[in-house]
Amino acid sequence: MRNQGWRGLVGVALALAAIALPVGAQPYKSEYSLSIVPDAGTPWAKGTQLWVDMVRERTRGRINIRLHPGAALVGGDQTREFTALRQGVIDMAVGSTINWSSAIPEFNVFSLPFLLRGYRSLDALTQGEVGRELFRRVEEQGVVPLAWGENGFRQLSNSRRAIRTPEDMRGLRFRVVGSLLFNDIFTSLGAVPTQLTWNEALRALKSRSIDGQENPITVYNYVRLDTLGQRYVTVWDYVADPILFVVNRQVWDSWSPQDRDIVRDAAIEAARFEITLAREDLLGNGRGTWDDLDARGVKVTRLTPEQRQRFVDATRPVYAKWKSLVGRDLVEKAEAAVRDDGVAVGARK
Ligand code: X2X
After folding, report:
1. Which candidate in 19, 101, 157, 283 could, as Cys together with 107 as Cys, close a disulfide (CB 3.0–4.6 Å)?
2. Can you point out the beta strands (E) in the chain?
3. Ligand 1 center from residue 248 Cα (angstroms)
4. Which residues lie with the beta carbon below 6 Å from any ligand 1 atom?
């Protein structure tokens, strides 16, 4: 008897739920998980936090997101983040094209060495036909792309010596991540690349088992890589990694059209704020990034156009090889966009 009473109650509850929800829709979760790689403090993390806060506020708590830094939901293995998102293990993410290139090889377009020439060319890619095509690739994989943000132009740092020529890199061990494109780039320059996650990289830098790494200066500063012996920085702008604000498709479909608009608009606003932070070259305390580096005793090397050309020449075969791996059509679109909209190297500083 008692059992039947329960069944009756469950039946009534199910019937009520069916009335409340459109056919096929999933109920809202009490909390949505969101993955990012870096810790709080970087523009990437601050922009993500703004998105989370705006969504919670504007949906009056209907969409409540918990941020998981350090790619913790995939045990720190940032190259598995996109797959976990596709499979619904992660609900949302703000992730780098470098990390997601293992799932979508076309993302390597941003990592073709020395393709980009300053922020205008980067914008020409993300905001133009290339960006739209990449969004389509993301959608095909069951993930909803909402906005482009930016980690930034990636600079070289190491603990051994100032790097002005490819010869200066000879034999140095650098941490890289993402696709084998990075192994090819560093090998072509005579260095010894090692694929490590960001967490592993920090441990390896601390223990001095590797000599160097490459990351935007905002990331370098936030983790204070100078305190881990990374006292030589070379500004070479060889690649940049945009970040994407995305939501798993099933999660997206479970939200009302009104809530989807809120989430999309907030992503666009947060991404705009995030890009401003990434480009402003200021530290949290308001001091100029580059002046502060000098003051901390970091030796910053800026390549002259002639010096930079030597790196371009040395990585040309890698560029050619990866142009076909990434897809000739897409790379040619990117090259055309850079030609039309790019500004001279160094003009952004
Ligand atoms: O791991 C890195 O180097 C980082 C933090 O920049 C990315 O996630 C691509």
Report:
1. 101
2. 32-35, 65-68, 92-96, 143-153, 155-158, 173-176, 192-195, 212-215, 232-235, 240-248, 299-302
3. 21
4. 37-38, 78, 96, 98-99, 151, 177, 198, 215, 219, 241
